[in-house]
């Protein structure tokens, strides 16, 4: 379907990438990965025909339809949501005419055995199948299903698009592309503006689709669920792995080890050649050998190692003061805009040191509650910020709030204080802004680079309460991993608003679900939450019909008594019980480990020829103890699972 041959792109003295060659076949779903700035978005633009390469070619089968969703789009329309989406079918009459013309040409031709006739048959078959696919269902039903899957509510279908945010308008563009049933789908960061439920819907859609897919995404779970091939842009070259993303990471680690060994051997060889040249440069009897070594040195092609892996990318939040026991307490908090109620009767308590997630469909109030906590907007009800709480806030548009006329270095220099100012260069280097990159103007940075810079600003603040609103948008995999590692080590309190399941997994211990004007608490991690929704036979959160809240006392009572509303004493008692259960599991696990080691030692003695009665008796006793210990450990784990 698609072949790329020896593609080369240059924006300066050094090519962005060169020699890129690959083939995409029907139904293949490939992930295009690499560090920020490696050229992923540029490559998609070239394939889509929006940019021209310096060298090489992109060959696409005749009359194939390409659907391209760029990372950033310039949108200007004055229609409603459903009217704009209907534009996906505006070329339908062209397709009908084309199929009709192909059919007429086939009826006129008599060279049935010629290659051109067979090509014509294949084209007619392909276009007829597309036409049948588009016409097979009612367009209204297709539009409704697609828009609903991407998070729109039915009452929003007739809303003017110029009232929507850029993220929601991007969803409309994605819906239009999906409804066209393209042969090849190019998606550049499609999950950046989608919530968890919409991402899962998109995953199912792509897995069932017959089109080929090339996707750029920093959502590891999305890539694992959708793709079966991984193409990496690194050091200006492409490496193709015919495996899923997780398997690619393992193979890549092995390949990097080989690269490192080859690099070290090459450095030894270069050092040896240079040493020979220096020792015998001025000896006439060695002139021929010296010249030979110089030519040999010139022919050596340096082995490159990916810059990301060479970066000492480690984050550590600065020391901060201890906050009160309850950094945030909400009592019957509500927020409305005119007659529209975003949420009401929100009751939650976040304890010091807890890491929690805010999830739910876009527009259900996650960022609104965050703004209430930050005192950026007014609200009804009581919202208390605990004693000695110092908040560090990363907003969705934090990267766009940077001064575009400042350099990277100046941006950080203006917020750094004390001794940390002496380490600015080191910090920037850790975030891949080393060398000349620190002197770049903010306005020339990519979205990912701006996000990293905004994150550095946050990290320099000594805070004990972090609120992160979509912090992983535009961050590459490595940077997300390091940020997650730093948050796990952070001893303060964290609220994360995110749709990135992989990032939230293992990080948060509680999930607050926003929907239908209410906020519901779920104990456990993000996958516990998703599993629970499935157990309740709710395939996706976007299918939940939350009852809108009114003044009915019974309904208000149900909201107040929603899951997880507990008094301080109940929460403290529950925490003690859970910690005690965790301690018991650890003790039982240590006992099992010790008995396994003891049993292994006895088995080694028996294997070496020691066959006394005492050792066999001891072997039986240890086996019995191990069996009992395993049962006790399993019971302890089961009890802990019930508590959680």
UniProtKB/TrEMBL annotation:
Residues forming coiled coils: 578-643
ABC transporter domain residues: 2-260, 328-541
Molecular function via GO: ATP binding; ATP hydrolysis activity
Transmembrane segments: none
Pfam families (alphabetical): ABC_tran (PF00005), ABC_tran_Xtn (PF12848)
Domain of life from the UniProt record: Bacteria
Alphabetized UniProt keyword annotations: ATP-binding, Coiled coil, Nucleotide-binding, Repeat
InterPro entries noted in UniProt: AAA+_ATPase, ABC_tran_Xtn, ABC_transporter-like_ATP-bd, ABC_transporter-like_CS, ABCF_ATPase, P-loop_NTPase
UniProt cross-references to CDD domains, sorted A to Z: ABCF_EF-3
Family statement drawn from the similarity comment of this UniProt entry: Belongs to the ABC transporter superfamily. ABCF family. YbiT subfamily.
Protein's name according to its UniProt entry: Probable ATP-binding protein YbiT
């Amino acid at each position: 379907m698609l072949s790329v041959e020896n593609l080369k792109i240059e924006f300066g003295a050094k090519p962005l990438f060169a020699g890129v060659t690959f083939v995409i076949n029907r139904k293949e779903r490939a992930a295009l990965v690499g560090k920020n700035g490696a050229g992923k978005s540029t490559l998609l633009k070239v394939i889509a025909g929006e940019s021209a390469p310096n060298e090489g070619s992109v060959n696409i089968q005749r009359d194939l339809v390409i659907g391209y969703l760029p990372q950033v789009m310039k949108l200007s329309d004055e229609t409603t949501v459903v009217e704009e989406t209907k534009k996906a079918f505006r070329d339908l009459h062209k397709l009908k005419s084309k199929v009709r013309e192909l059919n007429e040409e086939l009826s006129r031709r008599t060279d049935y055995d010629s290659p051109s006739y067979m090509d014509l048959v294949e084209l007619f078959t392909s276009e007829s199948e597309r036409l049948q696919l588009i016409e097979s269902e009612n367009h209204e039903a297709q539009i409704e299903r697609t828009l609903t899957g991407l998070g729109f509510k039915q009452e929003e279908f007739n809303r003017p698009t110029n009232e929507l945010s850029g993220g929601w308008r991007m969803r409309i563009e994605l819906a239009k592309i999906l409804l066209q049933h393209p042969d090849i789908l190019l998606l550049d960061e499609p999950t950046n503006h989608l919530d968890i439920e919409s991402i899962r819907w998109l995953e199912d859609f792509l897995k069932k689709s017959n089109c080929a897919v090339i996707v750029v995404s920093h959502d590891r779970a999305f890539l694992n669920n959708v793709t079966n091939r991984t193409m990496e842009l690194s050091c200006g070259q492409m490496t193709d792995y015919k495996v899923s993303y997780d398997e690619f990471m393992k193979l890549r680690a092995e390949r990097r080890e080989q690269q490192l060994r080859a690099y070290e051997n090459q450095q030894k060889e270069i050092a040896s050649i240079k040493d020979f040249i220096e020792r015998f440069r001025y000896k006439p009897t060695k002139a021929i050998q010296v010249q030979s070594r110089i030519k040999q040195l010139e022919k050596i092609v340096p082995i490159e190692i990916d810059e990301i892996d060479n970066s000492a990318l480690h984050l550590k939040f600065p020391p901060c003061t201890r906050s009160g026991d309850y950094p945030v307490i909400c009592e019957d908090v509500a927020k409305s805009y005119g007659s529209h109620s975003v949420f009401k009767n929100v009751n939650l308590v976040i304890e010091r040191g807890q890491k929690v997630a805010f999830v739910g469909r876009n527009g259900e109030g996650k960022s609104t509650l965050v703004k209430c906590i930050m005192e950026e907007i007014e609200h009804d009800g009581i919202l208390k910020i605990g004693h000695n709480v110092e908040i560090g806030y990363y907003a969705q548009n934090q990267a766009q709030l940077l001064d575009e006329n400042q350099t990277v270095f100046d941006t950080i220099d203006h917020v750094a204080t004390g001794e940390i100012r002496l380490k600015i260069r080191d910090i920037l280097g850790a975030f891949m802004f080393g060398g000349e990159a620190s002197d770049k103007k903010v306005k020339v940075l990519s979205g990912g680079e701006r996000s990293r810079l905004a994150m550095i600003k946050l990290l320099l603040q000594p805070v004990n309460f972090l609120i992160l609103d979509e912090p992983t948008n535009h961050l590459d995999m490595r940077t997300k991993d390091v940020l997650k590692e730093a948050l796990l080590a952070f001893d303060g309190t964290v609220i994360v608003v995110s749709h990135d399941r992989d990032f939230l997994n293992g990080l948060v211990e509680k999930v607050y679900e926003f929907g239908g004007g209410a906020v519901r608490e779920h104990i456990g991690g993000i996958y516990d939450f998703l599993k629970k929704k499935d157990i309740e036979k709710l395939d996706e959160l976007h299918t939940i019909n939350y009852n809108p809240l009114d003044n009915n006392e019974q309904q208000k009572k149900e909201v107040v008594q929603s899951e997880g509303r507990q008094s301080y004493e109940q929460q403290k008692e529950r925490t003690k019980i859970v910690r005690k259960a965790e301690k018991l599991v650890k003790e039982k696990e240590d006992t099992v480990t010790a008995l396994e080691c003891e049993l292994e030692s006895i088995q080694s003695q028996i294997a070496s020829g020691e066959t006394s009665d005492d050792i066999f008796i001891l072997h039986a006793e240890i086996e019995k103890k191990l069996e009992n210990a395993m049962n006790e450990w399993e019971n302890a784990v089961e009890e802990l699972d019930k508590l959680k």
